[in-house]
């Protein structure tokens, strides 16, 4: 009796679990939170589940593993009357690339690209699968928790986790959707790029710094500020490498143009 249909079904299940796992991890939680506030029950349930992601992720991984086992067994059973002892070998050779490429790599790549929209479709079937696989999921979580406790680890807490990409997505929201102004968004975006900036890129060489000697009159400082557009001017004593202070526009206005710097 041919069980190729069962092998095909297992391939479809592998694709589903692989895509669901990637979508669960990569979904834009800020966008989903916004959808939940607008009344999306699926988005709200996903956000609640993400507080303790072990169940969903364990379901996906166990589902993939079981699908692989059943697919291999079904194909081996189908080939056994023809190939005899070579049936398991050929089944492994045939299934490995198919399951790897079509069952995992391609679905995960697609799910990563459209994670947020896919999780809204895949989350409910994933919860149904979690209910069916609850004995296996519970056992897997128990084993993982026991191992973590044995080695002094702790359970993964993703409630406060917000990725750099999610923050950037928040900054790109339309006005009114995010609780930040355009100016604040620009400042935060620059902070992201600060780690890639070197001191050489932002410093001003001393020979190019606008400065005045300590003997200069306030009107000279005011003229320099107006010319260069600065509100403060460094003051040096005798030589430009000997900076002794900084004069600001506020100080000049309070002391008058006739006072000495």
What does the largest sheet look like? 3 strands, mixed
Average pLDDT, rounded to a whole number, is 81
Number of domains: 2
- What is the terminal-to-terminal distance? 100 Å
Rounded to an integer in angstroms, the radius of gyration calculated over CA atoms is: 32 Å
Using the alpha-carbon principal axes, give the shape.
elongated
Looking at the chains present, what oligomeric state does this protein adopt? single chain
Lateral strand order in the biggest sheet: 1-2-3
Q: Considering DSSP H and I runs of 4 or more, what fraction of the residues is helical?
A: 55-70%
Poorly predicted residue ranges: 157-161
Number of strands: 3
Q: Total helix count?
A: 12
Question: What are the secondary-structure elements, in order, as H or E?
Answer: HHHHHHHHHHEHEEH
Which structural class best describes the helix and strand composition? Answer: mainly alpha
Percent range for β-strand residues: under 5%
Give structural notes:
With 261 residues, the protein is mainly alpha-helical. The chain has two domains: 4-150, no CATH class; 201-255, CBS domain Like. The protein has twelve helices and three strands, in the order ααααααααααβαββα. The protein has helices spanning 4-26, 29-37, 41-50, 54-83, 87-113, 115-132, 134-150, 164-171, 182-194, 199-202, 218-228, 249-255, and strands spanning 212-213, 232-236, 243-248. Strands 1-2-3 form a three-stranded mixed sheet. Residues 157-161 have low confidence and may be disordered.
């Amino acid at each position: 009796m041919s069980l190729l249909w069962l092998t095909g079904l297992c391939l479809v299940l592998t694709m589903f679990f692989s895509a669901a796992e990637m979508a669960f991890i990569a979904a834009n939680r800020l966008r989903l939170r916004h959808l939940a506030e607008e009344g999306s029950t699926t988005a709200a349930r996903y956000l609640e589940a993400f507080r303790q992601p072990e169940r969903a992720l364990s379901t996906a991984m166990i589902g993939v593993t079981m699908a692989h086992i059943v697919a291999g067994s079904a194909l081996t059973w189908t080939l056994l009357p023809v190939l005899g002892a070579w049936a398991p070998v050929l089944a492994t050779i045939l299934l490995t690339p198919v399951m790897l490429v079509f069952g995992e790599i391609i679905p995960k790549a697609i799910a990563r690209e459209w994670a947020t929209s896919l999780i809204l479709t895949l989350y409910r079937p994933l919860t149904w699968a979690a209910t069916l696989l609850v004995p296996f999921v519970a056992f897997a979580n128990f084993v993982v928790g026991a191992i973590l406790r044995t080695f002094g680890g702790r359970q993964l807490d993703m409630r406060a986790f917000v990725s750099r990409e999610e923050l950037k997505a928040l900054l790109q929201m339309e006005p009114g959707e995010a609780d930040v102004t355009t100016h604040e968004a620009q400042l935060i975006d620059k902070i992201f790029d600060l780690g890639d900036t070197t001191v050489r890129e932002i410093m001003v060489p001393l020979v190019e710094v606008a400065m005045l000697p300590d003997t200069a009159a306030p009107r000279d400082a005011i003229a320099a500020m107006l010319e260069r557009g600065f509100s403060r001017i460094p003051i040096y004593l005798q030589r430009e490498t000997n900076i002794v202070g900084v004069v600001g526009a506020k100080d000049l206005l309070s002391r008058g143009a006739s006072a000495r710097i």
